[in-house]
Amino acid sequence: MKERKAAIVTGAGTGVGAATARELTRRGYEVIINYRRSADDAELAAKACREAGGDPLVVQGDVAQDADCRMLVERALEQWGRLDALVNNAGITTFVGNGDWDALTPEEFQNIYATNVLGMFQM
Asked: pTM score, two decimals?
């Protein structure tokens, strides 16, 4: 049997990330399903990956934190001895009205930036 490749999918607890993890599993990858807050959803994504023939790892981590990014890579290497793919899917936003930028606090903006920009860089 051919050895399966390994991938990390950030933000894989829900939506596009969960679908991507399932599709990568279907295509022969083992995956880390990374989530920040959606543990129950991440477990559902893992169930779908198991049904597709994989043995996923569900790992909580915040890509805005460099230590968590490093931990995700370490977990893949510990589990599979390799890392072949990364899907930088994690992203957040705060919805404000059109043109109402004052409704977005500096803290909210920094959190969005840390996840959507620094998280991709750190991964």
From this structure: 0.94
Q: What letter represents residue 4's amino acid?
A: R
Distances (CA, A) of 47 to 94, 109, 113: 30, 34, 31
Q: Which residues contact 47 (CB under 8 A, 6 or more apart)?
A: none
Distance separating alpha carbons of residues 77 and 81, to the nearest angstrom: 4
- State the angle between helix axes of 39-51 and 15-26 in degrees (0 to 180), rounded to the nearest 10: 20
Tokens of 72: 């995700």
- C-alpha 119 chain-centroid distance: 10
pLDDT of residue 23: 98
Half-sphere exposure of 67 (CA within 13 A, CB side): 0
Query: For 59-105, where are the alpha helices, taking DSSP H only?
Result: 66-80
CA distances for 40 relative to 45, 53, 82, 97, angstroms:
9, 20, 27, 30
